[in-house]
Specification:
Elements: H1 2-41, H2 44-88, H3 96-125, H4 133-161, H5 174-180, H6 184-219, H7 224-250
Helix pairs in contact: 1-6, 2-3, 2-4, 3-4, 6-7
Amino acid sequence: MARNDTIQKENRKALPKFLLTVLGCALLGGVLGFMSAMFAAEDILEDILEGAARLLSAVCPWGIPVSSVALLGAAFVLYRRSAAQYAAWDADDEEDETMDAIERQLSYALLFTSLAMLAGMFFLAASFLCENPLVNVGLFCVSLAAMTLLQQKIVDLTRRMNPEKKGSIYDLKFRKHWLDSCDEAERAQIGQAAYSAFTAGNIACGVVWAVLVMLNIFADTGLLAVAAVLAVWGVLQVSYTMTCIKLSRRRPSAPDGNRTGSNP
């Protein structure tokens, strides 16, 4: 009974802030809707879309090479710096600060390679705006090959630093083998990062859905983009919930006999 009282108190305490947040979002949506209607009435939104299309048409032929050189170049610099620091590292010092710094640099290097892939995929999708789309396709393939090779170098260096790690980047089950070779602390870190990504994904999907709905109402962009966002959002929600259900079957009960929930 005391537990139920605590739950009700927490709900009552959080409810006003939740209602204010919902009210604020509704007001913001109303303002954006009014502005969108005003823009649509004066053809401002159409002019903005046409201007964006012309800008993208001018940028698209240079998008893949410029983004690849900038992002993959930064990743390569971080990799080379990490490799040099590891080669000069003395294992007898028993200091983890150097190794931690190297691993952070390698993590940023992987982040830059992922951003390069996303940028390349965007400009590849916009290839129809180029005079010669096949050139963009070829540039994307070159960028993808360079990104894959660089990721392999980063993973190989990480494995040399951590001999217990397993898995080749060319293995289709690389993520499974890598996760199996992680210890409990690393798995907990991966779990925290995954939950943070899940939360950010939910927020991003909600914002993008709202924007696309407004665009469809006032610019008649169609429901395909809205459906695509909802499909991604659905996969995110279902995958997370089903994984929680699957993992809860393996988890033993807590010492007091209560099961701890992992699905908020």
